[in-house]
Amino acid sequence: MSGHAARKADHLDLCATDAVAFQGKSTLLEQVQLVHDALPELAVADVDLTTRFAGKSLRAPLFIAAMTGGFDRAEQVNRELASVAQELGIGFGFGSMRPLLEEDTTLGYLVRDVAPDALLLGNIGIVQAARSSVGQLQDLVGRTGVDALAVHLNPAMEVIQPGGDDDFRDGYATISRLLEGLDVPIVVKETGCGLSRTVGKRLVDLGVRWVDVSGAGGTSWVGVETLRAKARTRALGELYWDWGIPTAASVAQLAGLGLGIVATGGVQHGLDVSRAVALGATCGGMARPFLKAWNEGGREGALEAGRSVIEEIRLAHLLTGSRTPDDLRERPLVVGPTLDRWVPADSTLRSRYLGA
Predict the structure, then answer these.
(1) 125, β-bridge pairs
(2) 156, 200 in Cβ contact below 8 A?
(3) What is the β-pairing status of strands 283-286 and 260-263?
(4) Structural domain total, the chain
(5) CA-to-CA distance for 209 and 281, rounded, in angstroms?
(6) Taking 80 as the threshold, does the pLDDT of residue 93 lie above it?
(7) Please, which residues bridge with residue 334 across strands?
(8) What is the 3-state secondary structure (H, E, C) of 155-220?
(9) Which CATH number goes with the domain that contains 101?
(10) Which residues are paired to 262 by β-bridges?
């Protein structure tokens, strides 16, 4: 097994446990209270969860978030979860596609035959993107048939990871080059530490339209690498285990900038997805709950989990009198004090606070 494949196998095993959760930091999604509408004037069948992201339509604002790839077990995981995304009409995200650039393997990355219509997000690290030509990345897109390419930012994870990258210069220039050169949308995503408003504004200035906050509060990728680290970096990893912007805070930071936002990072159920949508997200994404359901019940277990999440999202819409996700993004909110400190002073979110 190659070094990359061994690392990804470790990731898959660790992320199926509670060992890599944030230790003292939550997503802050629990500090978002949706306001109950006792007279919603809606039937359940009236709720329309249709959502557009990166040029494609989803039947619900939900992604099976970035998973894995590049080794034997990833093949079955990705193919079965991608087929679930196809059946449910939701999105699916790959883990890092670095092996397609560096190794002679496509294991886990060829799923279009089982997900012909699903929105598929490719995935490459910003450092690998900086070292690759537009032609190489366009070939990666073409070989896998993805609809958009996520470029992941993960400085905290990399500096803890044994043998990880430590030079993160020219990131904005790399993103600009990809925006100009690739013929698919670019989704800029973090890896468990969230995106700030300052970064969001700079991305908008470059022409980025789609982001995935991948905030703090779910799986700590610093924690993942700490458990794999050698002695030199383990102490650093333990110190920075809880580093990052909570998921709800990152969505609130980016709300109103004109970005299509996927909220990932510790999203546990459909109510969390709905809370994120109410804050301004376009979609919510979940990785670990789907992986856990797949581990316990295979494809059918993951399919049932997805159906349950969609029904949970639908119920949140009904109980707030929201026929569509756009309606939910206009409903009043009650926001807890810690999350409130993350909401920018000029944010239109503040005008939706209950009693504002």
Answers:
(1) 152
(2) no
(3) parallel
(4) 1
(5) 13
(6) yes
(7) 33
(8) HHHHHHCCCCCCCCCCHHHHHHHHHHHCCCCEEEEECCCCCCHHHHHHHHHHCCCEEECCCECCEC
(9) 3.20.20.70
(10) 212, 283
Which residue, chain included where needed, has tokens 């079955």? 76
**For residue 286, what pLDDT is reported?**
97
Closest CA to 269 of 230, 317, 305: 305
Range of the domain at 143: 3-352
Query: How far is it between the farthest Cα atoms of the chain?
Result: 60
Whole-angstrom distance, CA of residue 192 vs CA of residue 185: 22
Residues 6+ apart with CB under 8 A from 303: 84, 87, 88
Instruction: State the Cα–Cα distance between residues 289 and 7, nearest whole angstrom.
Output: 21
**% of the chain exceeding 90 in pLDDT:** 80
Is a pLDDT exceeding 90 seen at residue 142? yes
Q: Using CA atoms, how far apart are residues 162 and 114, in angstroms rounded to an integer? A: 35
pLDDT of residue 1: 46
- What value does the mean pLDDT of the chain take? 92
H or E segment to which residue 19 belongs:
none
Give the model's confidence band at 6: pLDDT under 50 very low, under 70 low, under 90 confident, else very high: very low
What 3-state class would DSSP assign to 320?
coil
- Residue 207's pLDDT band (cuts 50, 70, 90): very high
- Cβ-based burial of 348 (10 A; exposed 0-12, middle 13-18, buried ≥19): exposed
Give the model confidence (pLDDT) of 65-90 as tens digits. Answer: 976 655 567 889 999 999 999 999 99
Query: What distance in Å separates the CA atoms of residue 146 and residue 89, rounded to the nearest whole number?
Result: 15
N-term to C-term CA, the chain: 58
Both structure tokens of 114: 């089982």
Selection from 158, 140, 163 nearest residue 150 by Cα: 140
